[in-house]
Amino acid sequence: MTSTLRALVLCCTLKSGDAESSSEKLGREVLVALADHDVDGEVVRVADQNVKFGVSTDEGDGDGWPTIRRKVLDSDIVVIATPIWMGQPSAVAKMTLERLDAELSETDDQGRPTMYNKVAVAAVVGNEDGAHHCCAEVMQALNDVGFTVPAAGGTYWVGEAMQKTDYVDAGPKPETTGAATKTLAANAAHLARLLRDSPYPKS
In angstroms, rounded to a whole number, what is the distance separating the alpha carbons of residues 81 and 109? Predict the structure, then answer.
């Protein structure tokens, strides 16, 4: 019997509150695709969580990161959903990755980095070029801190350059972004189960 895995989407839109977000839309589409593989999950909009700049697990004084970190630790799959700004991941995405850098100094009860045996993927949206570059930055940073990235671990949508159409306005893209999202979900769930059943050894 296949047991349920847990996924967490860290939505790195610059928008706070209930403002419509293309990054959140794609992140939620990843969760829908993951549900087909017995993966439950939730979305956290990082901009709403009072996350402070820094590279520790807790920057104190009301820092919102420790709550998010607990959700990361409780997850099998982490999705970084980011818009493209100036050809790069958003500032919120970069801050999120910087906070995860603290995990290089944290270990589990076997002495392995805390993010070992967790899977990470990227979901990128924008109306300018840079999707592959953003995936590369996000995936490399996550791998550096111990996450494992599956084959085809990125999904994205890029609209026409220098136009104002966003993913939330573009309508379904089942043959392109949708297909990439389904592949990402299948591979991420498969890898997460493999790592749960056969974790990395202590080095």
Answer: 30
Higher pLDDT, 172 or 156: 156
Distances (CA, A) of 137 to 90, 101, 150, 154: 11, 14, 15, 11
- Angle formed by the axes of helices 91-100 and 65-73, to 10°? 70
Distance CA(134)–CA(82), nearest Å, equals 8
The answer to whether residues 96 and 80 touch, using CB atoms and an 8 Å cutoff, is yes
Once rounded to an integer, what is the mean pLDDT over residues 78-95?
97
Residue with tokens 């589990």: 108
- This prediction has a pTM of 0.96
Residue 101: name the closest of 162, 42, 53 by CA: 53
Question: pLDDT > 90: what percent of the chain?
Answer: 87
Instruction: Indicate the DSSP class of residue 128.
Output: S
Here the contacts of 173-176 (C-beta below 8 Å, separation 24 or greater) are none
| Ordered structural domains, the chain, with CATH | 5-197 (3.40.50.360)
pLDDT interval class at 171 (50, 70, 90): confident
